[in-house]
Amino acid sequence: MITVAYFWRIKPKTILWALIHMGWDRLWLKRTKYVSFWKLLGTGKGETFTVRDGTALRWGFIVVIPREKLDTFNSSRGVERWRKKSISEFHAVLAPLSVHGLWADRNPFEIENSIVKNREWSGEVVAITRARIKWRKNVIFWRSVPPVTQSLHQSEGLIGAIGIGEAPIGLQGTFSLWASSDAVKNFAYRGSAHQSAIAATHREKWYSEELFARFAVLERAGRL
Q1: φ, ψ for residue 21 (rounded to 5)?
Q2: How many domains does the chain have?
Q3: HEC string for the chain
Q4: Which residues contact 77 (CB under 8 A, 6 or more apart)?
Q5: CATH number at residue 124
Q6: What is the pLDDT along the chain (224 residues), one digit of tens a residue?
Q7: Please, what is the end-to-end C-alpha distance for the chain in angstroms?
Q8: What pTM, to 2 d.p., does this model score?
Q9: Residue 202, domain extent
Protein backbone atom coordinates (compact mmCIF):
# COMPACT_ATOMS: atom_id res chain seq x y z
CA MET A 1 0.00 0.00 0.00
CA ILE A 2 1.07 3.57 -0.69
CA THR A 3 -0.19 6.97 0.43
CA VAL A 4 -0.88 9.66 -2.13
CA ALA A 5 -1.38 13.32 -1.22
CA TYR A 6 -2.87 15.94 -3.55
CA PHE A 7 -3.17 19.68 -3.00
CA TRP A 8 -4.68 22.05 -5.56
CA ARG A 9 -4.76 25.83 -5.81
CA ILE A 10 -7.88 27.31 -7.36
CA LYS A 11 -9.20 30.68 -8.50
CA PRO A 12 -11.62 32.64 -6.30
CA LYS A 13 -14.46 31.98 -8.74
CA THR A 14 -14.03 28.22 -8.10
CA ILE A 15 -14.43 28.38 -4.29
CA LEU A 16 -18.12 27.40 -4.31
CA TRP A 17 -17.35 24.45 -6.61
CA ALA A 18 -14.58 23.33 -4.23
CA LEU A 19 -16.85 23.55 -1.18
CA ILE A 20 -19.49 21.46 -2.92
CA HIS A 21 -16.96 18.82 -3.95
CA MET A 22 -15.56 18.60 -0.43
CA GLY A 23 -18.95 17.04 0.25
CA TRP A 24 -19.64 15.20 -3.00
CA ASP A 25 -16.21 13.64 -3.24
CA ARG A 26 -16.88 11.69 -0.06
CA LEU A 27 -19.28 9.55 -2.08
CA TRP A 28 -16.73 9.05 -4.86
CA LEU A 29 -14.01 7.97 -2.42
CA LYS A 30 -16.34 5.73 -0.44
CA ARG A 31 -17.36 3.97 -3.64
CA THR A 32 -13.77 3.46 -4.83
CA LYS A 33 -13.29 0.00 -3.34
CA TYR A 34 -9.50 -0.13 -3.50
CA VAL A 35 -9.14 3.08 -1.44
CA SER A 36 -8.61 1.79 2.10
CA PHE A 37 -8.38 5.23 3.77
CA TRP A 38 -9.11 8.79 2.67
CA LYS A 39 -9.40 12.27 4.12
CA LEU A 40 -10.58 15.41 2.34
CA LEU A 41 -8.66 18.41 3.61
CA GLY A 42 -8.83 22.15 3.80
CA THR A 43 -5.50 23.94 4.15
CA GLY A 44 -3.95 26.98 5.75
CA LYS A 45 -0.70 28.66 6.59
CA GLY A 46 -0.27 26.48 9.68
CA GLU A 47 0.88 29.39 11.83
CA THR A 48 -1.80 29.69 14.51
CA PHE A 49 -4.26 26.86 13.67
CA THR A 50 -7.16 29.26 14.10
CA VAL A 51 -9.77 30.09 11.48
CA ARG A 52 -7.77 33.09 10.23
CA ASP A 53 -5.02 30.70 9.07
CA GLY A 54 -7.27 29.00 6.56
CA THR A 55 -7.45 29.63 2.84
CA ALA A 56 -10.31 28.85 0.49
CA LEU A 57 -7.92 28.79 -2.46
CA ARG A 58 -6.15 25.50 -1.72
CA TRP A 59 -7.78 22.10 -1.09
CA GLY A 60 -6.64 18.53 -1.11
CA PHE A 61 -6.99 14.96 0.01
CA ILE A 62 -4.93 12.01 1.18
CA VAL A 63 -5.65 8.44 0.11
CA VAL A 64 -4.16 5.04 0.86
CA ILE A 65 -4.26 2.68 -2.12
CA PRO A 66 -2.45 -0.38 -3.51
CA ARG A 67 0.66 0.64 -5.42
CA GLU A 68 -0.58 -1.08 -8.56
CA LYS A 69 -3.67 1.18 -8.54
CA LEU A 70 -1.69 4.43 -8.64
CA ASP A 71 -2.09 5.07 -12.36
CA THR A 72 -5.78 4.16 -12.19
CA PHE A 73 -6.46 6.55 -9.32
CA ASN A 74 -4.27 9.30 -10.75
CA SER A 75 -6.34 9.33 -13.93
CA SER A 76 -9.71 8.83 -12.21
CA ARG A 77 -12.63 11.18 -12.84
CA GLY A 78 -12.40 12.57 -9.32
CA VAL A 79 -8.76 13.59 -9.68
CA GLU A 80 -9.25 14.89 -13.21
CA ARG A 81 -12.16 17.09 -12.04
CA TRP A 82 -9.84 18.88 -9.62
CA ARG A 83 -7.10 19.19 -12.22
CA LYS A 84 -9.45 20.91 -14.66
CA LYS A 85 -10.55 23.40 -12.01
CA SER A 86 -7.11 24.09 -10.50
CA ILE A 87 -4.39 26.54 -11.44
CA SER A 88 -1.63 24.42 -9.87
CA GLU A 89 -1.21 20.99 -8.35
CA PHE A 90 1.13 19.38 -5.85
CA HIS A 91 1.07 15.63 -5.41
CA ALA A 92 3.35 13.18 -3.69
CA VAL A 93 3.53 9.39 -3.63
CA LEU A 94 4.59 8.22 -0.19
CA ALA A 95 5.61 5.09 1.70
CA PRO A 96 5.41 5.09 5.53
CA LEU A 97 8.65 5.05 7.51
CA SER A 98 7.28 5.48 11.04
CA VAL A 99 3.82 6.01 12.49
CA HIS A 100 2.79 6.89 16.05
CA GLY A 101 -0.80 7.35 17.13
CA LEU A 102 -4.19 7.08 15.42
CA TRP A 103 -6.28 8.90 12.85
CA ALA A 104 -10.05 8.41 13.20
CA ASP A 105 -9.49 5.59 15.70
CA ARG A 106 -7.16 3.63 13.45
CA ASN A 107 -3.66 3.53 12.02
CA PRO A 108 -4.31 3.79 8.28
CA PHE A 109 -0.64 3.59 7.26
CA GLU A 110 0.60 -0.01 7.17
CA ILE A 111 4.15 0.39 8.38
CA GLU A 112 4.73 -3.36 8.62
CA ASN A 113 3.97 -3.73 4.90
CA SER A 114 5.78 -0.61 3.74
CA ILE A 115 7.77 -0.96 0.54
CA VAL A 116 10.56 1.15 2.10
CA LYS A 117 12.37 0.38 5.34
CA ASN A 118 13.21 3.28 7.65
CA ARG A 119 16.90 2.50 7.97
CA GLU A 120 17.29 2.19 4.20
CA TRP A 121 15.83 5.58 3.21
CA SER A 122 18.06 8.61 2.61
CA GLY A 123 15.85 10.74 0.35
CA GLU A 124 13.17 13.36 0.90
CA VAL A 125 10.62 12.85 3.65
CA VAL A 126 7.08 14.03 4.32
CA ALA A 127 5.89 14.45 7.89
CA ILE A 128 2.17 14.47 8.68
CA THR A 129 0.88 15.51 12.08
CA ARG A 130 -2.78 15.40 12.93
CA ALA A 131 -4.67 15.94 16.17
CA ARG A 132 -8.19 16.09 17.53
CA ILE A 133 -8.04 18.99 19.96
CA LYS A 134 -10.29 18.97 23.01
CA TRP A 135 -12.70 21.89 22.77
CA ARG A 136 -11.95 23.20 26.24
CA LYS A 137 -8.23 23.20 25.40
CA ASN A 138 -8.37 25.17 22.13
CA VAL A 139 -7.41 28.55 23.59
CA ILE A 140 -4.43 27.13 25.51
CA PHE A 141 -3.34 25.25 22.39
CA TRP A 142 -3.55 28.34 20.16
CA ARG A 143 -1.39 30.33 22.57
CA SER A 144 1.32 27.68 22.43
CA VAL A 145 1.45 27.23 18.65
CA PRO A 146 3.24 30.38 17.30
CA PRO A 147 6.74 29.65 18.72
CA VAL A 148 6.61 26.12 17.29
CA THR A 149 5.47 27.20 13.83
CA GLN A 150 8.08 29.95 13.72
CA SER A 151 10.73 27.36 14.60
CA LEU A 152 9.33 25.00 11.96
CA HIS A 153 9.55 27.51 9.14
CA GLN A 154 13.11 28.41 10.13
CA SER A 155 14.27 24.79 10.32
CA GLU A 156 17.19 23.67 8.20
CA GLY A 157 16.12 21.11 5.63
CA LEU A 158 12.48 22.20 5.43
CA ILE A 159 11.31 22.41 1.80
CA GLY A 160 7.73 23.44 2.48
CA ALA A 161 4.93 23.17 5.04
CA ILE A 162 1.20 23.88 5.20
CA GLY A 163 -1.56 23.45 7.72
CA ILE A 164 -4.20 20.81 7.01
CA GLY A 165 -7.58 20.19 8.58
CA GLU A 166 -10.74 18.14 8.27
CA ALA A 167 -12.60 21.05 9.87
CA PRO A 168 -11.81 24.74 10.49
CA ILE A 169 -11.36 24.13 14.23
CA GLY A 170 -10.54 21.06 16.29
CA LEU A 171 -9.26 18.62 13.64
CA GLN A 172 -5.96 20.03 12.52
CA GLY A 173 -2.42 19.18 11.59
CA THR A 174 0.52 19.87 9.32
CA PHE A 175 1.90 18.48 6.09
CA SER A 176 5.59 19.23 5.68
CA LEU A 177 8.22 18.27 3.12
CA TRP A 178 11.83 17.81 4.24
CA ALA A 179 15.18 17.16 2.60
CA SER A 180 15.86 14.14 4.84
CA SER A 181 14.79 12.16 7.90
CA ASP A 182 17.60 13.77 9.89
CA ALA A 183 16.14 17.22 9.19
CA VAL A 184 12.76 16.14 10.61
CA LYS A 185 14.38 14.59 13.66
CA ASN A 186 16.47 17.68 14.36
CA PHE A 187 13.34 19.81 14.40
CA ALA A 188 11.27 17.35 16.41
CA TYR A 189 13.81 16.36 19.05
CA ARG A 190 16.37 19.17 19.23
CA GLY A 191 14.32 22.32 18.74
CA SER A 192 13.60 23.99 22.06
CA ALA A 193 10.21 25.34 20.97
CA HIS A 194 9.04 21.92 19.85
CA GLN A 195 10.36 20.28 23.00
CA SER A 196 8.44 22.82 25.09
CA ALA A 197 5.29 22.05 23.10
CA ILE A 198 5.74 18.32 23.67
CA ALA A 199 6.07 18.92 27.40
CA ALA A 200 2.96 21.13 27.35
CA THR A 201 1.05 18.46 25.43
CA HIS A 202 1.68 15.94 28.21
CA ARG A 203 0.92 18.50 30.90
CA GLU A 204 -2.23 20.06 29.40
CA LYS A 205 -3.54 16.94 27.60
CA TRP A 206 -4.71 19.00 24.63
CA TYR A 207 -5.57 16.08 22.37
CA SER A 208 -8.17 13.35 22.46
CA GLU A 209 -6.36 11.75 19.50
CA GLU A 210 -3.05 12.43 17.77
CA LEU A 211 -0.84 11.03 15.04
CA PHE A 212 2.68 11.68 13.81
CA ALA A 213 3.92 9.91 10.70
CA ARG A 214 6.98 10.12 8.47
CA PHE A 215 6.98 8.98 4.85
CA ALA A 216 9.55 8.35 2.17
CA VAL A 217 8.83 10.47 -0.90
CA LEU A 218 8.80 8.02 -3.79
CA GLU A 219 7.86 10.72 -6.27
CA ARG A 220 6.44 14.23 -6.24
CA ALA A 221 5.42 16.93 -8.64
CA GLY A 222 4.50 20.59 -8.25
CA ARG A 223 5.20 23.07 -5.49
CA LEU A 224 3.79 22.69 -1.98
Answers
A1: -75, -20
A2: 1
A3: CEEEEEEEEECHHHHHHHHHHHHHHHHHHHHCCCCCEEEEEEEECCCCCCHHHEEEEEEEEEEEECHHHHHHHHCCHHHHHHHHHEEEEEEEEEEEEEEEECECCECCCCHHHCCCCHHHCCCCEEEEEEEEECHHHHHHHHHHHHHHHHHHHCCCCEEEEEEEECCCCCEEEEEEEECCHHHHHHHHHHCHHHHHHHHHHHHHCCEEEEEEEEEEEEEEECCC
A4: 28
A5: 3.30.70.100
A6: 899 999 999 999 999 999 999 999 999 999 999 999 999 998 876 555 555 666 889 999 999 999 999 999 999 999 999 999 999 999 999 999 989 888 888 888 877 777 777 667 889 999 998 877 655 555 555 555 555 565 566 678 889 888 888 775 556 788 999 999 888 887 766 655 455 555 555 555 566 678 889 999 999 999 88
A7: 23
A8: 0.82
A9: 2-221
Burial readout 5-31 (b: 16 or more C-beta within 10 A, e: otherwise): bbbbbbeeebeeebeebeeebeebbee
For β-strands 86-101 and 207-221, DSSP reports them as antiparallel
